[in-house]
Amino acid sequence: MINQPKLPLDEVAYIALLPRAEMESRLRALWNAGWSLAVIGDSLNPPRPKTTVHFWVRRAEDVKQFRNIPVPPPKSLTTSVPTKNAPRLRSISPGVPADIRLRLRELSVLSKRYRAKTSPDSPLAKANVELTQIAKELRSRGVPTASIAEAAGVTYRAMARRLSNG
User: Fold this and answer.
1) Exposed, middle or buried, 106 (CB in 10 Å: 0-12/13-18/19+)?
2) Residue 18 is part of which domain span?
């Protein structure tokens, strides 16, 4: 994942020297300039939650700043919604291979009929164990749980629970 951007060190040092009311006004000016609350809070020493920073920014007065406000990073690094100039960077997750996809579907159909009282050597119990093993192997390779669930034909919640047990 991309490292979260931080305020420049000289800005953090400047903020630390300000009295409370001026510090809050400075944080408000940074926020109005485009810095996210999370980045501002993480940059402070000690780091503050964004809820605290939001409270300060809301109650601060808009005061003319005599020191230049640093330019914020591109929006895609500070928000979850990409912008035209800075699209969101996404890692590409491996998918479920086609040959395994068919096997997952077959095992899923059998596993749906498995119950705790089923004999451990029955085809249903063996299918249930094999489905769990394949799902855990795929998950360890970085395949998203949602992709495994879709390939098996079950809900995300059912697959997440299967992967969390054991």
Assistant:
1) middle
2) 9-77
For residue 3, tell me if it sits in a domain: no
- Across the chain, mean pLDDT equals 86
Q: Side chain identity at 36, as an amino acid letter?
A: S
Distance CA 22, CA 69 (A): 14
The DSSP result for 38-84, as a single string, is: HHHHHHSSS---HHHHHHHHHHS-----SSPPPPPPPGGGTSSS--S
Q: pLDDT digits over 104-134, tens only?
A: 999 999 999 999 898 999 999 999 999 999 9
DSSP 126: H
Model confidence, pTM: 0.47
Q: What's the sign of the alpha-carbon dihedral 30, 32, 34, 39?
A: positive
